[in-house]
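In this supplementary section we document a worked example of the pipeline. Step one takes a protein sequence of length 152 as its only input; no multiple sequence alignment statistics are reported here. Step two produces a three-dimensional model, which step three serialises into structure tokens for compact storage. The input and output of this example are shown verbatim.
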Amino acid sequence: MRGRLPGAAPSGNLGSMTTRASSNEGSNRAPRIARGRRAQISGIAAETLACAALVADGWTVLGRRLRTAAGEIDAVARKDDLLAFVEVKRRATLAEAAASLSPRQQKRLLEAGAILLGEHPEWGRAGVRFDVIVVDPDGALRRIADAFRIEN
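The serialised model returned by step three reads:
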């Protein structure tokens, strides 16, 4: 009985328990992974629509899907030296999309924005704001300019 601690279950029993748990996890993970991929694809499509709308409105998109240690900013855009950090939300309705930005996400976006401003001090000379663009499955969108601010 080499390699077994005193009082431990025989390795054959432990292995079968591990195998059963793993096979159950695998069957539950596949649909979740597929949903995640579909959500990522629809999210990227919504971001593309949002950036096209920004450009049509005279904004210059400086970056998309910018990653920082605090999190990701979906888009950064500039118009007349005003900088907008843009979060894009896609849900079944515009109202659901607008309501889906949690205080925790807002905090993460504020922190990510601060990091990006530190990396790009030339951005936002005329000010900085956080916009949310909400998109529904039909591609209708609405921008919520200056959607939230740093609370004192």
